[in-house]
């Protein structure tokens, strides 16, 4: 995700400085014209606005707060936009580190996967410092098709977790439907066409149905990240005393798929947790 988003900024003519824990992953961006930094702090030192796209809460905290992390070079006039999917507590901790160094903080997790990231069609779910949202708007416009400002720190993270919890349950349900259709002798391709025309038509079902029927799960949204989002959404449910029985059941399927070795496959590989073995 970070690669596609940064590449769009380079293509739009911005001076982009990149860092990644595994440095080789910066090579293609360097070839496209980005400058490569040695640490997150070095990125922040070079830039007015720094974007972070990282896997999970642990990664976001590490990159923001390590001795050579982003907060170490934060200063008044600089902004940090974390577009990773994390929980509100992590967003608050990163915000505190950035703000205590005088910087501004925006969380802006994204809806949309690899394709929308490449096409500049992401949806940003932002919260935090409104002035930074306004300053970052031209960048978000390059990378996305819509940006929402949802309020104080945590609101963007919570919105993203609600959206991905719904998506995870829908995908698990779709996997069950495709599997049941097959078991009763129906063509899965017919199910895809029937669903496409009715009230439960859904771009995700249309996109993923054919490849799921073939047992192909080339990663767009890795299953380990979907399971992380289910876990974080369930924790949010506990905190809010909101029952989430469907999401809890779906989470067990994603955990089963992870245990079966599908962590780095697309999240549609949840199919393997429900499909009856012939
Ligand atoms: N893929 C998708 O479709 C979407 C993903 N998201 C969210 O975006 C985020 C990134 O997703 P995606 O790009 O797919 O994930 P990837 O797994 O491809 O990339 C994760 C990135 O995080 C880095 N990272 C992980 N742990 C650490 C750490 N401890 N310290 C420093 N860097 C670390 C990785 O570095 P390294 O290369 O060294 O491993 C890599 O750059 C996740 O929060 C995900 O939930 C949101 C919308 C869509
Ligand atoms: O977090 C991943 C979201 C994927 C999507 O919105 O298609």
Kindly estimate the percentage of residues that lie in beta strands according to DSSP.
5-15%
Oligomer: single chain
Bound molecules: NADPH dihydro-nicotinamide-adenine-dinucleotide phosphate, 4-oxobutanoic acid
Low-pLDDT stretches: none
Cα shape: globular
Protein name: Glyoxylate succinic semialdehyde reductase chloroplastic
Active site: 160
Pfam families: NAD_binding_11, NAD_binding_2
Catalytic activity: glycolate + NADP(+) = glyoxylate + NADPH + H(+); 4-hydroxybutanoate + NADP(+) = succinate semialdehyde + NADPH + H(+)
Note the topology.
Blueprint: H1 2-11, E1 17-18, H2 27-32, E2 35-36, H3 40-46, E3 49-52, H4 57-65, E4 79-82, H5 88-100, E5 104-107, E6 110-111, H6 114-119, E7 122-128, H7 130-143, E8 144-149, H8 155-183, H9 188-197, H10 203-213, H11 223-240, H12 245-259, H13 271-274
Helix pairs in contact: 4-5, 8-10, 8-11, 8-12, 9-10, 11-12
The structure holds NADPH dihydro-nicotinamide-adenine-dinucleotide phosphate (NDP) and 4-oxobutanoic acid.
Catalytic activity: glycolate + NADP(+) = glyoxylate + NADPH + H(+); 4-hydroxybutanoate + NADP(+) = succinate semialdehyde + NADPH + H(+)
Family: Belongs to the HIBADH-related family. NP60 subfamily.
Domain 3-hydroxyisobutyrate dehydrogenase-like NAD-binding: 154-272
